[in-house]
Design brief:
The chain is an alpha+beta fold and 416 residues long. The protein has 18 helices and ten strands. The protein starts with a helix and ends with a helix.
Protein backbone atom coordinates (compact mmCIF):
# COMPACT_ATOMS: atom_id res chain seq x y z
CA UNK A 1 0.00 0.00 0.00
CA UNK A 2 1.27 3.48 -0.89
CA UNK A 3 2.33 5.58 2.14
CA UNK A 4 -0.42 8.21 1.79
CA UNK A 5 -3.06 5.48 1.74
CA UNK A 6 -1.48 3.88 4.82
CA UNK A 7 -1.51 7.23 6.62
CA UNK A 8 -5.16 7.72 5.79
CA UNK A 9 -6.07 4.22 7.01
CA UNK A 10 -4.14 4.73 10.24
CA UNK A 11 -5.78 8.13 10.86
CA UNK A 12 -9.21 6.55 10.43
CA UNK A 13 -8.26 3.85 12.91
CA UNK A 14 -7.23 6.53 15.40
CA UNK A 15 -10.70 8.08 15.25
CA UNK A 16 -10.51 10.74 12.54
CA UNK A 17 -13.52 10.57 10.23
CA UNK A 18 -12.05 12.75 7.49
CA UNK A 19 -8.46 12.68 6.23
CA UNK A 20 -6.95 14.61 3.33
CA UNK A 21 -3.33 15.09 2.24
CA UNK A 22 -2.26 18.18 0.32
CA UNK A 23 1.00 19.86 -0.76
CA UNK A 24 1.99 22.84 1.37
CA UNK A 25 1.93 26.28 -0.24
CA UNK A 26 0.77 29.84 0.33
CA UNK A 27 -2.69 30.52 1.74
CA UNK A 28 -5.27 31.64 -0.79
CA UNK A 29 -7.49 33.43 1.73
CA UNK A 30 -4.85 35.63 3.32
CA UNK A 31 -6.16 38.82 1.68
CA UNK A 32 -9.67 38.10 2.97
CA UNK A 33 -8.23 37.38 6.41
CA UNK A 34 -6.10 40.53 6.43
CA UNK A 35 -9.12 42.63 5.52
CA UNK A 36 -11.13 40.92 8.27
CA UNK A 37 -8.45 41.89 10.79
CA UNK A 38 -8.19 45.45 9.45
CA UNK A 39 -11.92 45.94 9.95
CA UNK A 40 -11.51 45.17 13.64
CA UNK A 41 -13.63 42.02 13.56
CA UNK A 42 -11.09 40.16 15.73
CA UNK A 43 -11.98 42.34 18.71
CA UNK A 44 -9.38 42.07 21.46
CA UNK A 45 -7.79 38.88 20.09
CA UNK A 46 -4.43 40.55 19.46
CA UNK A 47 -2.74 37.18 18.92
CA UNK A 48 -4.59 36.86 15.61
CA UNK A 49 -2.78 39.95 14.32
CA UNK A 50 0.55 38.55 15.52
CA UNK A 51 -0.15 35.22 13.81
CA UNK A 52 -1.24 36.71 10.46
CA UNK A 53 2.23 36.65 8.81
CA UNK A 54 2.69 32.99 9.81
CA UNK A 55 -0.76 32.05 8.51
CA UNK A 56 0.09 33.42 5.07
CA UNK A 57 2.20 30.32 4.39
CA UNK A 58 2.59 27.21 6.60
CA UNK A 59 6.30 27.10 5.77
CA UNK A 60 6.76 30.31 7.76
CA UNK A 61 5.63 28.34 10.81
CA UNK A 62 7.30 25.07 9.83
CA UNK A 63 10.00 25.78 7.20
CA UNK A 64 10.65 22.14 6.31
CA UNK A 65 6.99 21.29 5.62
CA UNK A 66 6.21 19.80 2.22
CA UNK A 67 2.88 18.09 2.87
CA UNK A 68 -0.06 18.77 5.18
CA UNK A 69 -2.28 16.01 6.52
CA UNK A 70 -5.66 17.55 7.30
CA UNK A 71 -7.85 15.75 9.83
CA UNK A 72 -11.38 16.08 11.18
CA UNK A 73 -12.98 14.35 14.17
CA UNK A 74 -16.69 14.27 14.92
CA UNK A 75 -17.62 15.55 18.41
CA UNK A 76 -21.42 15.44 18.15
CA UNK A 77 -22.65 13.97 21.48
CA UNK A 78 -24.45 10.62 21.19
CA UNK A 79 -27.54 11.55 23.21
CA UNK A 80 -29.40 14.66 24.35
CA UNK A 81 -28.63 15.95 27.82
CA UNK A 82 -31.54 17.24 29.87
CA UNK A 83 -31.28 21.00 30.31
CA UNK A 84 -28.63 21.48 27.63
CA UNK A 85 -31.17 22.49 24.99
CA UNK A 86 -33.90 25.10 25.12
CA UNK A 87 -36.50 22.53 24.10
CA UNK A 88 -35.77 19.99 26.83
CA UNK A 89 -36.86 21.00 30.30
CA UNK A 90 -34.66 24.03 30.81
CA UNK A 91 -34.40 25.53 34.26
CA UNK A 92 -33.87 29.30 34.61
CA UNK A 93 -31.04 28.53 37.03
CA UNK A 94 -29.04 26.49 34.51
CA UNK A 95 -26.77 27.80 31.81
CA UNK A 96 -25.69 26.30 28.51
CA UNK A 97 -22.27 25.26 27.27
CA UNK A 98 -21.29 24.73 23.65
CA UNK A 99 -21.17 21.05 22.69
CA UNK A 100 -17.48 21.10 21.90
CA UNK A 101 -16.74 21.72 25.58
CA UNK A 102 -18.92 18.99 27.08
CA UNK A 103 -16.13 16.43 27.24
CA UNK A 104 -12.39 16.32 27.79
CA UNK A 105 -10.28 19.11 26.29
CA UNK A 106 -10.06 18.33 22.58
CA UNK A 107 -6.56 19.81 22.40
CA UNK A 108 -5.35 17.03 24.67
CA UNK A 109 -7.34 14.26 22.97
CA UNK A 110 -6.44 15.16 19.40
CA UNK A 111 -2.82 16.05 20.12
CA UNK A 112 -2.29 12.55 21.47
CA UNK A 113 -3.88 11.04 18.36
CA UNK A 114 -1.89 13.21 15.94
CA UNK A 115 1.33 12.41 17.79
CA UNK A 116 0.58 8.71 17.44
CA UNK A 117 -0.08 9.21 13.72
CA UNK A 118 3.25 11.00 13.36
CA UNK A 119 5.09 8.12 15.00
CA UNK A 120 3.36 5.72 12.62
CA UNK A 121 4.54 7.79 9.65
CA UNK A 122 8.13 7.71 10.88
CA UNK A 123 7.92 3.98 11.31
CA UNK A 124 6.51 3.42 7.82
CA UNK A 125 8.86 5.94 6.21
CA UNK A 126 11.82 4.24 7.85
CA UNK A 127 13.51 7.51 8.73
CA UNK A 128 13.10 10.48 11.11
CA UNK A 129 10.39 12.88 9.96
CA UNK A 130 10.61 16.59 10.66
CA UNK A 131 7.06 17.43 11.67
CA UNK A 132 4.79 19.78 13.55
CA UNK A 133 1.11 19.50 14.35
CA UNK A 134 -1.67 21.97 15.01
CA UNK A 135 -4.91 21.56 16.94
CA UNK A 136 -6.90 24.79 16.68
CA UNK A 137 -4.46 27.05 18.55
CA UNK A 138 -1.60 27.19 15.99
CA UNK A 139 -1.15 29.85 13.26
CA UNK A 140 -2.67 27.78 10.45
CA UNK A 141 -5.65 28.68 8.25
CA UNK A 142 -7.22 25.41 9.24
CA UNK A 143 -10.60 25.76 7.54
CA UNK A 144 -9.07 26.84 4.25
CA UNK A 145 -6.65 23.89 4.26
CA UNK A 146 -9.38 21.48 5.34
CA UNK A 147 -11.57 22.64 2.45
CA UNK A 148 -8.69 22.39 -0.01
CA UNK A 149 -8.07 18.84 1.17
CA UNK A 150 -11.70 17.90 0.57
CA UNK A 151 -12.86 17.71 4.21
CA UNK A 152 -15.85 19.94 3.53
CA UNK A 153 -16.71 23.53 2.63
CA UNK A 154 -16.77 26.76 4.61
CA UNK A 155 -20.38 27.62 5.33
CA UNK A 156 -22.03 30.99 5.69
CA UNK A 157 -21.38 30.87 9.43
CA UNK A 158 -17.65 30.39 8.67
CA UNK A 159 -17.75 26.81 10.01
CA UNK A 160 -16.42 23.84 8.04
CA UNK A 161 -19.36 21.68 6.93
CA UNK A 162 -19.29 18.08 5.73
CA UNK A 163 -22.28 16.61 3.88
CA UNK A 164 -22.63 13.62 6.21
CA UNK A 165 -21.04 14.83 9.45
CA UNK A 166 -22.36 18.38 9.45
CA UNK A 167 -20.27 20.96 11.26
CA UNK A 168 -19.69 19.22 14.60
CA UNK A 169 -16.02 18.80 13.73
CA UNK A 170 -12.67 19.31 15.41
CA UNK A 171 -9.86 20.04 12.96
CA UNK A 172 -6.19 19.17 13.21
CA UNK A 173 -3.21 19.36 10.88
CA UNK A 174 0.09 17.51 10.68
CA UNK A 175 2.87 19.08 8.65
CA UNK A 176 5.68 16.78 7.52
CA UNK A 177 8.84 17.14 5.44
CA UNK A 178 7.77 14.32 3.13
CA UNK A 179 6.42 14.84 -0.39
CA UNK A 180 3.33 12.68 0.07
CA UNK A 181 0.89 11.76 -2.67
CA UNK A 182 -2.14 14.08 -2.36
CA UNK A 183 -5.36 12.40 -1.24
CA UNK A 184 -8.82 13.97 -1.24
CA UNK A 185 -10.95 13.36 1.85
CA UNK A 186 -14.17 13.58 -0.14
CA UNK A 187 -14.52 9.80 -0.51
CA UNK A 188 -13.94 8.94 3.17
CA UNK A 189 -17.56 7.86 3.62
CA UNK A 190 -17.44 5.63 0.57
CA UNK A 191 -19.77 7.90 -1.39
CA UNK A 192 -17.98 9.65 -4.26
CA UNK A 193 -18.62 13.37 -4.39
CA UNK A 194 -17.68 16.24 -6.62
CA UNK A 195 -14.10 17.21 -5.81
CA UNK A 196 -12.75 20.68 -5.11
CA UNK A 197 -10.70 22.38 -7.84
CA UNK A 198 -7.33 20.93 -8.78
CA UNK A 199 -4.43 21.99 -6.57
CA UNK A 200 -2.16 24.38 -8.43
CA UNK A 201 -0.43 27.45 -7.14
CA UNK A 202 -2.04 29.53 -9.88
CA UNK A 203 -5.66 28.45 -9.49
CA UNK A 204 -8.03 30.70 -7.53
CA UNK A 205 -9.46 29.37 -4.31
CA UNK A 206 -13.01 28.23 -4.97
CA UNK A 207 -14.22 26.25 -2.00
CA UNK A 208 -16.68 23.58 -3.08
CA UNK A 209 -19.80 24.20 -1.06
CA UNK A 210 -23.50 23.54 -0.73
CA UNK A 211 -25.18 26.16 1.44
CA UNK A 212 -27.23 27.37 -1.50
CA UNK A 213 -29.74 30.09 -0.66
CA UNK A 214 -30.09 28.98 2.99
CA UNK A 215 -29.57 31.77 5.52
CA UNK A 216 -30.71 29.90 8.66
CA UNK A 217 -27.48 30.60 10.56
CA UNK A 218 -27.48 34.29 9.67
CA UNK A 219 -31.13 34.70 10.63
CA UNK A 220 -30.82 32.82 13.93
CA UNK A 221 -27.72 34.49 15.42
CA UNK A 222 -28.97 36.21 18.61
CA UNK A 223 -26.48 39.08 18.33
CA UNK A 224 -26.30 39.46 14.54
CA UNK A 225 -22.65 38.42 14.51
CA UNK A 226 -22.75 36.85 11.01
CA UNK A 227 -22.66 40.12 9.12
CA UNK A 228 -22.11 38.58 5.67
CA UNK A 229 -21.53 35.15 4.14
CA UNK A 230 -18.45 33.58 5.76
CA UNK A 231 -17.89 36.76 7.76
CA UNK A 232 -18.34 36.81 11.54
CA UNK A 233 -17.79 39.97 13.56
CA UNK A 234 -16.25 38.38 16.65
CA UNK A 235 -17.08 41.45 18.74
CA UNK A 236 -20.74 40.42 18.56
CA UNK A 237 -20.27 36.64 18.66
CA UNK A 238 -21.44 34.94 21.85
CA UNK A 239 -18.48 32.56 21.73
CA UNK A 240 -16.06 35.49 21.68
CA UNK A 241 -17.98 37.41 24.34
CA UNK A 242 -18.11 34.48 26.77
CA UNK A 243 -14.61 33.10 26.16
CA UNK A 244 -12.13 35.47 24.55
CA UNK A 245 -13.31 38.82 25.92
CA UNK A 246 -11.72 39.33 29.32
CA UNK A 247 -13.40 42.54 30.45
CA UNK A 248 -17.06 43.52 30.84
CA UNK A 249 -19.44 42.27 28.16
CA UNK A 250 -20.89 45.30 26.30
CA UNK A 251 -24.40 45.96 27.50
CA UNK A 252 -25.95 45.88 24.04
CA UNK A 253 -25.08 42.18 23.68
CA UNK A 254 -25.97 40.91 27.15
CA UNK A 255 -29.61 40.11 26.47
CA UNK A 256 -28.64 38.22 23.30
CA UNK A 257 -26.32 35.98 25.30
CA UNK A 258 -29.34 34.50 27.04
CA UNK A 259 -28.24 31.52 29.15
CA UNK A 260 -24.98 30.74 27.32
CA UNK A 261 -22.05 30.68 29.75
CA UNK A 262 -19.38 29.21 27.46
CA UNK A 263 -19.57 29.43 23.71
CA UNK A 264 -22.69 29.16 21.56
CA UNK A 265 -24.17 26.58 19.18
CA UNK A 266 -27.09 28.51 17.71
CA UNK A 267 -25.73 28.80 14.16
CA UNK A 268 -24.92 25.09 14.15
CA UNK A 269 -28.16 23.99 15.81
CA UNK A 270 -30.20 25.54 13.00
CA UNK A 271 -27.98 24.31 10.15
CA UNK A 272 -29.88 21.80 7.95
CA UNK A 273 -26.69 19.80 7.42
CA UNK A 274 -26.64 19.01 11.14
CA UNK A 275 -30.14 17.52 11.29
CA UNK A 276 -28.96 14.00 10.52
CA UNK A 277 -25.39 14.34 11.75
CA UNK A 278 -24.16 11.07 13.30
CA UNK A 279 -23.02 10.85 16.90
CA UNK A 280 -19.37 10.65 17.82
CA UNK A 281 -17.86 7.32 18.81
CA UNK A 282 -15.22 9.07 20.92
CA UNK A 283 -16.18 8.73 24.59
CA UNK A 284 -13.82 11.56 25.56
CA UNK A 285 -16.15 14.03 23.84
CA UNK A 286 -19.29 12.93 25.68
CA UNK A 287 -20.59 15.04 28.53
CA UNK A 288 -22.97 15.12 31.45
CA UNK A 289 -25.64 17.50 32.68
CA UNK A 290 -23.39 19.37 35.10
CA UNK A 291 -20.99 20.25 32.28
CA UNK A 292 -23.50 20.81 29.48
CA UNK A 293 -26.10 22.66 31.59
CA UNK A 294 -24.28 23.86 34.73
CA UNK A 295 -26.02 25.31 37.75
CA UNK A 296 -25.55 29.09 37.48
CA UNK A 297 -25.51 29.70 41.23
CA UNK A 298 -22.78 27.07 41.64
CA UNK A 299 -20.71 28.64 38.87
CA UNK A 300 -21.03 32.06 40.43
CA UNK A 301 -19.82 30.73 43.79
CA UNK A 302 -16.79 28.74 42.55
CA UNK A 303 -13.46 29.81 43.98
CA UNK A 304 -10.20 29.45 42.06
CA UNK A 305 -9.24 26.05 43.44
CA UNK A 306 -12.72 24.66 42.78
CA UNK A 307 -12.68 26.03 39.25
CA UNK A 308 -9.28 24.47 38.51
CA UNK A 309 -10.32 21.10 39.94
CA UNK A 310 -13.57 21.05 37.98
CA UNK A 311 -12.23 22.24 34.62
CA UNK A 312 -8.59 21.16 34.62
CA UNK A 313 -9.09 18.95 31.57
CA UNK A 314 -11.89 20.94 29.95
CA UNK A 315 -11.90 23.62 27.23
CA UNK A 316 -13.92 25.71 29.71
CA UNK A 317 -10.67 26.45 31.52
CA UNK A 318 -9.89 29.03 28.80
CA UNK A 319 -12.57 31.39 30.12
CA UNK A 320 -10.83 31.45 33.53
CA UNK A 321 -12.80 31.58 36.76
CA UNK A 322 -13.60 35.26 36.53
CA UNK A 323 -14.87 34.92 32.97
CA UNK A 324 -17.11 31.99 33.79
CA UNK A 325 -18.45 33.73 36.90
CA UNK A 326 -19.09 36.90 34.88
CA UNK A 327 -20.98 34.82 32.29
CA UNK A 328 -23.01 33.10 35.01
CA UNK A 329 -23.99 36.49 36.43
CA UNK A 330 -25.11 37.69 32.98
CA UNK A 331 -27.11 34.49 32.43
CA UNK A 332 -28.73 34.87 35.85
CA UNK A 333 -29.45 38.49 35.01
CA UNK A 334 -31.24 37.45 31.85
CA UNK A 335 -33.21 34.85 33.80
CA UNK A 336 -34.09 37.44 36.45
CA UNK A 337 -35.24 39.90 33.79
CA UNK A 338 -37.38 37.25 32.12
CA UNK A 339 -38.79 36.23 35.50
CA UNK A 340 -39.55 39.83 36.39
CA UNK A 341 -41.33 40.40 33.06
CA UNK A 342 -43.36 37.24 33.51
CA UNK A 343 -44.22 38.24 37.05
CA UNK A 344 -45.37 41.68 35.94
CA UNK A 345 -47.44 40.29 33.09
CA UNK A 346 -49.17 37.65 35.19
CA UNK A 347 -49.52 39.59 38.40
CA UNK A 348 -48.60 36.39 40.20
CA UNK A 349 -46.33 35.65 43.10
CA UNK A 350 -42.58 35.56 43.10
CA UNK A 351 -41.13 32.29 41.69
CA UNK A 352 -39.13 30.31 44.24
CA UNK A 353 -36.03 30.23 42.09
CA UNK A 354 -35.94 34.03 41.86
CA UNK A 355 -35.07 34.48 45.53
CA UNK A 356 -32.10 32.11 45.23
CA UNK A 357 -30.84 33.94 42.14
CA UNK A 358 -30.99 37.31 43.88
CA UNK A 359 -29.15 35.98 46.93
CA UNK A 360 -26.41 34.56 44.71
CA UNK A 361 -26.03 37.84 42.85
CA UNK A 362 -25.88 39.83 46.09
CA UNK A 363 -23.13 37.50 47.31
CA UNK A 364 -21.28 38.03 44.03
CA UNK A 365 -21.12 41.74 44.78
CA UNK A 366 -18.28 40.73 47.14
CA UNK A 367 -16.34 38.82 44.46
CA UNK A 368 -12.66 39.77 44.25
CA UNK A 369 -12.94 40.40 40.50
CA UNK A 370 -14.41 43.75 39.40
CA UNK A 371 -15.79 42.25 36.18
CA UNK A 372 -17.87 39.79 38.22
CA UNK A 373 -19.11 42.51 40.60
CA UNK A 374 -20.12 44.65 37.63
CA UNK A 375 -22.01 41.81 35.94
CA UNK A 376 -23.79 40.97 39.20
CA UNK A 377 -24.81 44.61 39.64
CA UNK A 378 -26.29 44.68 36.13
CA UNK A 379 -28.20 41.47 36.88
CA UNK A 380 -29.72 43.00 40.02
CA UNK A 381 -30.74 46.17 38.21
CA UNK A 382 -34.39 45.32 37.44
CA UNK A 383 -35.26 44.80 41.09
CA UNK A 384 -36.45 47.70 43.20
CA UNK A 385 -36.88 45.45 46.23
CA UNK A 386 -35.11 46.55 49.37
CA UNK A 387 -32.66 43.64 49.56
CA UNK A 388 -31.27 44.27 46.08
CA UNK A 389 -31.18 48.06 46.42
CA UNK A 390 -29.50 47.92 49.81
CA UNK A 391 -26.88 45.52 48.50
CA UNK A 392 -26.15 47.77 45.52
CA UNK A 393 -25.84 50.89 47.68
CA UNK A 394 -23.52 49.13 50.10
CA UNK A 395 -21.45 47.83 47.19
CA UNK A 396 -21.14 51.30 45.70
CA UNK A 397 -19.84 52.67 49.00
CA UNK A 398 -16.97 50.18 49.07
CA UNK A 399 -16.28 49.87 45.31
CA UNK A 400 -12.79 50.94 44.19
CA UNK A 401 -12.99 49.96 40.52
CA UNK A 402 -14.36 52.65 38.20
CA UNK A 403 -15.98 50.29 35.70
CA UNK A 404 -17.69 48.24 38.42
CA UNK A 405 -18.84 51.43 40.18
CA UNK A 406 -20.41 52.63 36.92
CA UNK A 407 -22.27 49.33 36.57
CA UNK A 408 -23.62 49.72 40.10
CA UNK A 409 -24.75 53.30 39.47
CA UNK A 410 -26.52 52.24 36.28
CA UNK A 411 -28.22 49.42 38.16
CA UNK A 412 -29.41 51.83 40.87
CA UNK A 413 -30.61 54.28 38.22
CA UNK A 414 -32.44 51.53 36.40
CA UNK A 415 -30.51 52.10 33.15
CA UNK A 416 -28.81 49.59 30.86
Amino acid sequence: MELSAEIKARAHALGFQRVGIIPVGPSRTQEFYREWLNRGYAGEMAYLHRHAPLKADPTRWQPSARSMICLAANYNPPAPITGADSSRGRSPLRGRVSRYAWGRDYHEVLSDKVDELAKFIEQRAGCPVNRRHAVDSAPVMEREWAARAGLGWVGKNAMLIDRRLGSWLFLAELLVDLALKPLDAADDDGQPRAAPPAETDQSPLVLWESCGSCTACIDACPTGAIIAEKTVDARRCISYLTIELKGPIPQQWRAGIGDWVFGCDVCQDVCPWNRQAPATAESAFEGDRETAAPDLIELLALDESEFQARYRHSPIRRAKRKGLARNAAIALGNAVREGAATLEASGGGRPRWLAGAIRALIAAMHDREPVVRGAAAWALGPFGRDEARQALRAALDRETDDAAAMEIRCALDGTD
